[in-house]
Design goal:
Blueprint lengths: L37 E9 L2 E6 L6 E6 L13 E6 L9 E6 L5 E4 L9 E5 L3 E7 L7 H14 L2 E7 L7 H5 L8 E3 L7 H7 L3 E5 L6 H8 L3 H10 L11 E4 L7 E4 L13 H6 L2 H6 L25 H19 L7
Parallel strand pairs: 3-5, 8-9, 8-11, 9-10, 11-13
Antiparallel strand pairs: 1-2, 1-4, 2-3, 4-5, 6-7, 12-13
Helix pairs in contact: 1-8
Length: 339
């Protein structure tokens, strides 16, 4: 008998919790397995709706919402997800994302070097294509250095694409990256893109670059239907302007090849990256600092008069100075103007 003389139920009441205002229905943490969920990749995000390309038919874009059971789990372009419901991709249909897989890589940036909010640019990308114009606007080695650091820390392989080669000779700019395992390709509007196509084949590649460097022109050459495709997958029925968000686009006649076009950015903040990660991102600098005294900040004189980075010369010395500029910016909170 229970307290008050009433007969007890056939289960131990300590096994369940009663939700206030919800009668006597027990709360359970059991979640559906969704074993039949379709495998897909997120190709666009727009105000509570995600466009997903289903693995079984990548040309089919399914508009989805996030299942309640996922709570506020962040979902970004490039995420591998499980989708249930109507996955036909037909107009006015809506499916649900019920699972987000672990990420193999994450490209992050912050608005500046003091911003505590990390922006995930893309998940699971194999490569980061850093798009830089050789003129109009002039190339900035600092931006490339920052993007390289973010790529290495996030687990992406960087590639440097140079545009507007008809306006300037890129030999001097290329020389700034001598000694790095960094493929550099010409990708101007009049350049042959065969080499770039080979680097992209079979991979998911995120593109980043300042506004005006010719990234959109390059994307339109890689994906001739990019304007139409961008509107289809990024709007997901909301009609939002497509240049303000990232969108993944498949390269025609190249199965498994995707490029993620991202909005032009003003700066590449690294508030989420530690000073050690910045230095260790570059193989030649990582090897050099093995000879630094204990506790070296790698900022050089007067703080560290015995820093091994001072012994470098040529391109490595220029790279060491660029890294020091980043370290000073991270330490002082003043964003490197080259970033």
């Amino acid at each position: 008998m229970s307290r008050g003389g009433r007969a007890t139920r056939g289960y131990d009441e300590s096994d369940v919790r009663i939700r206030p205002g919800k009668g006597t229905r027990p709360r359970t943490k059991t979640r559906p397995a969704h074993a039949d969920a379709a495998e897909a990749m997120v190709v666009s995000v727009d105000r509570g709706r995600w466009g997903c390309a289903v693995d079984a038919d990548p040309d089919r874009i399914v508009v989805t919402m996030r299942a309640r059971e996922l709570g506020r789990t962040p979902i970004v372009v490039g995420d591998r997800v499980g989708v249930v419901g109507d996955v036909s991709g037909a107009k006015d249909t809506l499916a649900r994302i019920v699972r987000v897989d672990d990420r193999t890589s994450v490209l992050r940036r912050t608005a500046d070097d003091t911003d505590p909010y990390e922006r995930i640019v893309v998940a699971n990308a194999d490569q980061l294509l850093i798009v830089t114009a050789l003129a109009d606007p002039p190339p900035r080695t600092g931006f490339v250095e920052r993007a390289l650091a973010a790529a290495y820390v996030g687990g992406l392989s960087p590639v440097l694409a140079l545009t507007k080669s008809d306006l300037a000779d890129g030999a001097q700019f290329r020389a700034a990256f001598d000694g790095l395992d960094l493929p550099i390709v010409a990708a101007g509007r009049d350049d042959d893109l065969t080499e770039l196509h080979a680097l992209l084949a079979g991979k998911l590649t995120a593109l980043v670059g300042h506004s005006g460097v010719g990234k959109s022109t390059m994307v339109n050459r890689l994906v001739p239907q990019a304007d139409r495709a961008t509107g289809e997958v990024s709007g997901v029925g909301k009609g939002r302007h497509t240049s303000t968000q990232s969108v993944a686009l498949p390269l025609p006649d190249s199965p498994g090849t995707w490029v993620v076009d991202t909005p032009g950015i003003r700066s590449f903040g690294l508030a989420h990256v530690s000073p050690d990660d910045v230095v260790n991102a570059f193989a030649d600098l990582r090897e050099a600092i093995e000879d630094c005294p204990r506790g070296c900040t790698h900022l050089g004189p007067p703080a560290d008069p015995e820093c091994a980075l001072d012994e470098l010369d040529g391109a490595a010395a220029r790279r060491a100075q660029a890294v020091r500029n980043i370290l000073v910016a991270l330490h002082s909170g003043e964003t490197d103007p080259e970033g």
